[in-house]
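For the sake of transparency, this paper describes our internal protein records without simplification. An entry from our holdings is shown next, in its original layout:
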Amino acid sequence: MAEPHQHTNRLAGEKSPYLLQHAHNPVDWFAWNDEAFETARRNNKPIFLSIGYSTCHWCHVMERESFEDQRVADYLNSHFISVKVDREERPDVDKIYMMFVQATTGSGGWPMSVFLTPELEPFFGGTYFPPDGRHGRLGFLHVLQHISGLWDKRKNDIAASANEIRTRLQAAATTGSTGGLVLTDSVLKNAAALFKQAFDPQNGGFGGAPKFPQPSMPQLLLRCALRFHDDEAARMVMHTCERMAAGGIHDQLGGGFARYSVDAEWLVPHFEKMLYDNAQLAHLYLDAYLVSKAKAGSHADTFAVVVRDILDYVLRDMTHPEGGFFSAEDADSEGQEGKFYCWTREELSKLLSPEEFNVAAKYFGITAEGNFLDHSHPQPLRGLNVLSIVNPVGEQDGRLLESAKQKMLSARAKRVRPHLDDKILTSWNGLMLEAFALASAVLDEPKYRVAAEKDLQFIRQKLWVTAQGKGTLFHRWRDGQSDRTQLLEDYAFLLPGVLSLYEATLEPDHLGFAVELADVMIEKFFDAENGGFWQSVSRDLIFRLKDDYDGAEPSGNSKAVLALLKLGAITGQKQFTAAAEKTLRLFAPRLEKIPQAMPFLLQGLDFSLPDPVRVVIAGDRDSGIFHKLLRAAHSAYQPNKVVLGTAGPVEEFSRTLPAKGEASAYVCRGNTCLPPANDAAQLKRLIA
């Protein structure tokens, strides 16, 4: 195994934390660029494409086992052009080759390992390969030798096959015409029934192990619960939120959620924390809080605490001094997965007083054997306990528990922290901006509004570049520099964040920027002929596609549709609504046949079916009554409403509504409004 910094390769000049992690491998890595492609063509060598991200546990394992191994590196350097891609910097590249790996192997994940022709067409791929054959997996060096031998003997056949594969992938990625299919609420009812069938009544969540939160699915169920008066659907979501919050997937000391649990009980997480997960979960828990509060549910306060817990974690550990939000925290520290987060019984007995220990051990279910073992490590640590809420405590023991948790958090802060991926992605910042803005309004928390304002200011200063009166949004900023990648998801994720901040503040400048963003998004990415938005404008892809899957992150198309529908309702500008509706029609067959593929787009469909409710607040934005009315407008769960003022580019009818006294609020559909409200209680009744 190579000593650290014995080698330095081209990746040392990159900004991506993931690429920099590999800058001292003996592998002669290239970044994804023309130099790599031209070198492959000139030397007529196949490309080995390795895609991962900096907080990916199995990426670290494969690096340790293979990319730091001199034998493997020598073989790669002799027979392949090796290219490293950070999937978070280039999700458009990742999407195309993940389609290939999933189509040819039946599964996908990271690290992703794909072999390409010099023309970038894939012909063989997989995910993690161990160094030697084990558990039915081929050893990585054996794979390299086999691929190299085939290339030497049959490169023309491989190139022809790869070209055919590219053609098939492109055809599979092409969304056809709807044939005039009309979407109705029956599509939503069908989706809800399907999701409910997958519900785990014991542990909450949908499906089995490994279990991902998938926030867009329970969020859609809450919408369907409201639309169809389905209390069972709402109970499923409440139970899911309660069990996730109690599980080990939720950091019981420091806040925030890990990416997923390896079991069905939400107990043992894959410990990395991603910004996009925590943003979406904060939104889900805000919805759950409002629904539970309306029903006088026992979990309402708990759900509000979880929202604060997530956002306070992000403010403490994931925020740049100037306001942008960092991308992720690793699962590993000191080479061991979960070491930062887990506890042994002996360790806790020494740290806490006997009384604190007894309460904490019971509450968290601490045992001498532990409940977690890092099977990926040759020498795993023993007796580790992931913290989860096993036995809730009463008020008297609660004080001892709080004391114990503070000591544990202080002791944990002295440990070696997991690696922080400190790049700032526009797309994920858009998701978290939305969460902070919504929380500032729903929880009436000024510090969250300040955080949202700072984040938007950061994005506009660092990643939004205006030239000759036109703006362009770039994808990644790190270490004083932005990239030049332009992706749909940046516009589509940032737009609802800006809109949510507008609705939380009614600051006209935010609405003006939202209009500007939407205009540029449509100009750059919208397919005016067929509907839908292209994922990327990059020229280094083997084909263009329209992302049509809402997974751990929603697709750009899904986020764009809901945001454009809301923007159309607020501004009255019909081009926004028209683009959204044309996109819904394009994906209509997919929504009808496999609704689980796009649960977030179904939220857009839900918004599109009725005329949305508009809550218009007129008057002095600095007055106390204006603030109370704005707070009341956000106090009920009503996802198909928009909140707007009377200044800036709002729709024409709203601009005519007068304030009576310091401020008044109107609840409207179309050009029909209920009598104006001049106090918060009255407005709440009108909205209800």
About this structure: The domain at 10-172 is CATH 3.40.30.10 (Glutaredoxin). Residues 626 and 634 are 13 Å apart (CA to CA). The first strand starts at residue 30 and ends at 31. The mean pLDDT is 94.
